[in-house]
Amino acid sequence: MLSIALDGPVGAGKTTIARELAKRLNFLYVDTGALYRSIGKYIVDQGGDPSSPEDVIPRLHDISIQLRYNNQNQQRVFLNNADVSDEIRTPEISMAASQVGAIPEVREFLISLQREIAEKNNVVMDGRDIGTTILPNASFKIFLTASVEERAERRYQELREKGDGSTYEQVLNDLKKRDYNDSHRAVSPLSQAADAVLVDTTGLSLEDSIDKLEDLAQEAIFHREEH
């Protein structure tokens, strides 16, 4: 099976690009961020503190997460059999996802699920530590980034379209905080794998970014098959 690991900071466009890349390659797309967001949402809904291991760890055995596809072949996220695909995309749940992701037991809880999916399918998997921790032997690794200002602008526009009232300054500050948390956590911090290709999409349109990654992926797959 072939696996493409796509890592990078929040707001770099990983989810959108990875989903489209998987579609073009006819691979399964695995949104790992949605798994962490689902745990974050569960803890918040239960009135717990997502940064507190004492609040989070005992509740893990009550959580069931599944990735399913609807009739339009869109991936939907189910938390304990409830579709939470849209509810997990709020700024509050983004922060909760970052907080629970810093807890080692949460990462262990999810790592076997992610690896099992990759063993059974050709996948494009995006997250913070796919190429370094989850799939260290991935067929091809990409580290996707863009300037924090551009990432904040993209996220701000996304939230506006959804009717969220966050200001650009709030989104920018949130991203800076997320970047710091993700890169300084003790367990599997955000970092570029030594064998990953760095792709900076600052100034690129979404279509151009996807085209660039598709070219890189096709070339990597071609060379792999040659050998």
Q: Brief overview, please?
A:
The protein is of the alpha/beta class. It has helices at 14-25, 32-45, 53-56, 91-100, 104-120, 130-134, 148-161, 168-184, 206-226; strands at residues 3-7, 28-31, 65-69, 75-79, 82-83, 123-127, 140-145, 197-200. The chain has nine helices and eight strands.
Describe the structure.
With 227 residues, this protein is an alpha/beta fold. Helices cover 50% and strands 16% of the residues. It contains 9 helices and 8 strands. The strands form 2 sheets. Strands 2-6-1-7-8 form a 5-stranded parallel sheet, with helices on both faces. Strands 3-4-5 form a 3-stranded antiparallel sheet, covered by helices on one side. The longest helix has 21 residues, at 206-226. The mean pLDDT is 91.
The total beta strand count reads 8
Query: How many helices does DSSP assign?
Result: 9
Question: Share of helix among residues?
Answer: 40-55%
Mean pLDDT: 91
What is the end-to-end distance?
15 Å
Using only C-alpha atoms, the radius of gyration works out to 17 Å
Main sheet strand line-up: 2-6-1-7-8
Could you spell the SSE succession in H and E letters? EHEHHEEEHHEHEHHEH
Largest sheet: 5 strands, parallel
Uncertain ranges: none
Share in β-strands: 15-25%
* Helix/sheet category: alpha/beta
Global morphology = globular
Topology:
Layout: E1 3-7, H1 14-25, E2 28-31, H2 32-45, H3 53-56, E3 65-69, E4 75-79, E5 82-83, H4 91-100, H5 104-120, E6 123-127, H6 130-134, E7 140-145, H7 148-161, H8 168-184, E8 197-200, H9 206-226
Parallel strand pairs: 1-6, 1-7, 2-6, 7-8
Antiparallel strand pairs: 3-4, 4-5
Helix pairs in contact: 1-9, 2-4, 4-8, 7-8
